[in-house]
Amino acid sequence: MEYIPILLVFLLYFTGIPIAYALLGAALSYFVFFDSGMPADLVLQRFITATASFPLLAIPFFIMAGSTMNYAGISKKLMELAQMLTGHLPGGLAQVNVVLSTMMGGISGSANADAAMQSKMLVPQMRRHGYPAAFSAAITAASSAISPVIPPGIVLIIYALIAQVSVAKMFVAGYIPGLLMAGCLMLTVAIIAKKRGYAATRKKRASLREVSGQFFDSLWALALPFGIILGLRFGLFTPTEAGAIAVLFCVLIGAFVYKELTLSHIKPILLDTIYGTGSVVLIIVAASVFGYYLTWEQIPQTLTQLLLDFTNNKYLMLATLNILLLALGMLLEGGAAMLIIAPLVVPIAMQLGIDPIHFGMIIIVNIMIGGITPPFGSMMFTTCSITKVPVTDFIQEVWPFILALLIALLVVTYLPDIVLFLPNLI
Fold it and tell me: Where does the record place it (predicted)?
């Protein structure tokens, strides 16, 4: 009987109920109908107190920063720089797609936001240059998996809160895995482009003078993620304060440097922030209530013991957890998957001596790959709905990119020193 709420979550989710309401409904049904030992009002109190967390304020600030960046012209400057750097490579615009996601990750922090933005910005250009619609949608979804891995991705903050590790170290740990994912995707694009004859968008490599000129033009946009990391490293501000500073930075740059941000943009920025924050925080508090049920029934401890009885070999356990995480990433949106799975599997990793920072990157990369994988990947549906590409056509084109990201995942999983190199410097 104690496992019925877990089955109920998936049953409700697959019938089309949003994941937040599925989590909340399953948890409340347990305390109301199956175990009356906990008064329902205390369960609802948990729903309220879950929001009383100062670090959670970082989420609306970074969502607002990402929205402001789009209206401030920062996104356009980054795309121009990406075009300058990779436009001469085979599959030029597809390469730009990957590089732009890598540079945007430090600011937008959301895979679905990045997928939506590039579906509107880059996919129409790719189609005008002769790229098939399904290929354009596939590389857009695949490259969006990089965004949350590069700091300050929101899932990095959520994991740090769950695992009680340093947000700054999680931020720094994301750089190398994110660049590794980008490299694997760019290599895959080059192979496909040569095979199919996708032309570069520039006839020759940009000169050093052109690159340096564009670099300085985009310097303000590039300074944001590095400024956040340095500020956290030297204790100038907390992660929450970093989000507020990021918003202020984007406003000043958009209004006085690029001069594209106007008063008319205030309303859409606020609406983007409210919608984005509302959906994320609702999932967080619903998952908190669901986590209360898991703790009440000691399900994390049961799962830990079950898996440890299966094997106490660290490498075999990591392979098992990778399969579990990929499956969950296919079914749930990134933030929801993180909130459900992290409390269950982090104790297992700790017991096997796996560094929590390293394990956090494994979880995040897994969930992001799951987000572009059929049948329920969230970024898959985001790009297909905006680009009007049938899911069946998308699936045919996305498999090489999934394979490339799985190679990156194996490196992240079994070469922890690569992930921990930068955090260990802090």
Answer: Cell inner membrane
Hunting for tokens 């590409």 — which residue is that?
389
33 in a structural domain: no
The pair of three-digit structure tokens given for residue 175, joined into one six-digit string: 């750089």
Domain-located, residue 244: yes
- Residue whose tokens read 């967390």: 53
178 pLDDT tier (thresholds 50, 70, 90):
very high
CA–CA distance, 333 with 16 (Å, rounded to integer): 14
CB environment 11-50: b (16+ within 10 A), e (fewer): ebbeeeebbbebbbbbbbebbeeeeeeeeeeebeebbeeb
Mean pLDDT, residues 173-191 taken together: 92
Please say if the pLDDT value at position 109 is more than 60: no
Q: Note if the bond before 375 is cis, omega within 30 degrees.
A: yes
Is residue 321 in a domain?
Answer: yes
pTM reported for the whole predicted model: 0.75
- List the domain range (segments joined by +) for residue 265: 50-425
Residue 22 lies inside a defined structural domain of this protein: no
List all residues 6 or more positions away from 394 whose beta carbon is below 8 Å from its beta carbon: 134, 137, 138, 141, 380, 383, 384
Total structural domains in the chain?
1
